[in-house]
Amino acid sequence: MERLLYFVVCANIWIGFSESHQILSSGGMKEWWESTLIYQIYPRSFKDSNGDGYGDLNGILERLDYVKEIGVDTIWIQPFYKSPMADMGYDVADYRAVDPMFGTMDDFKRLLKNSHEKGMKVIVDFVPNHSSDQGEWFKLSEQRIEPFTDFYVWKDGKRINETHTTHPNNWRSVFRGPAWTWSEKRKQYYFHQFAPQQPDLNYYNPRVRREMEDVLRYWLDLGVDGFRVDAVNHLLEAEHYADAPAGIKGGLGVIEGVSMVYMMRQPGNLQLIKSWRAVLDEYVKKDGQARVHDCEKSVATCPPELLADKCRGSKAGPQQPPQHLQTTR
């Protein structure tokens, strides 16, 4: 049981299979991500290097030789960005900063350098659907300070009578309850597919798209070898923001009796994913080194158009979904 718990909170080993990367592949040679063994690390519970009770980046560095010895050649580090930790770090307050709980940017650079020296690759999480409500972007948006006014999805309430309003529609959060939270400061509701502390970014705003592409470039410039992209099925929502129909109880994509048809699997999601893959390909063309771009996928979350796109032989989207193998080592 102890070993199983260690697997659940610390690590998950998986092997990614994919078709050949067309920019670099030649003569039938496979890229590193096509057969790599990847060790998934949640840093907070992995290894505490300084006795404060929390795992950290230096703790990963201390155990790097062990990870290498068991045959792993790629590590995937879950969020270590600055965060209030309302959702295990998936509520990012600053996409370009390391949370002090995990160390410093110099610690990350040292971990990256040592990994590469050992012939290992490093993949990090990219959390594009939402940020933290404690981040500067949201605080400025809440105050209607440009260019952040429309960085998030803000809506007026639905009027009930002359004096009262309610949520803009009946959409439900993945974490249950309304997908809208009132901001007393802005006098509007903001949209969140997950926790209220995780406001959704507004990808109908070109500035948001450019900003998140620059986030990718920031980490690529530091030398990371790729990204695991979180919550890709939730990136866009239907622009009409109409009430969703009722769903079949227990059905896929149904929360508290309401269908998520307007919140998930929107047509523009695939184009966003392709735009991020294009950023990685910029770097591949510069130095000839392949990068991996893998999206969170499961039966519930994998966008069907993404799989269809791969079946048609497209090379513009992410590499193929990983096959997850549980380990109790």
Automatic annotation (TrEMBL):
InterPro entries annotated for this entry? GH (IPR017853), GH13_cat_dom (IPR006047), O16G_dom_2 (IPR045857)
List the source organism: Bemisia tabaci
Glycosyl hydrolase family 13 catalytic domain residues are 40-329
* Reactions mediated catalytically: Hydrolysis of terminal, non-reducing (1->4)-linked alpha-D-glucose residues with release of alpha-D-glucose
TM ranges are none
Which keywords has UniProt assigned to this entry?
Glycoprotein, Glycosidase, Hydrolase
PANTHER family to which the protein is assigned, alphabetical: ALPHA-AMYLASE FAMILY MEMBER, NEUTRAL AND BASIC AMINO ACID TRANSPORT PROTEIN RBAT
Q: Which domain of life is it from?
A: Eukaryota
Q: Which family does it belong to?
A: Belongs to the glycosyl hydrolase 13 family.
Query: Would you tell me the protein name for this molecule?
Result: alpha-glucosidase
Q: Which GO terms describe its biological process?
A: carbohydrate metabolic process
Q: Which GO terms describe its molecular function?
A: alpha-1,4-glucosidase activity
Q: What is the lineage of its organism?
A: Eukaryota, Metazoa, Ecdysozoa, Arthropoda, Hexapoda
Its Enzyme Commission number?
3.2.1.20
Q: Which is an annotated Pfam family here?
A: Alpha-amylase
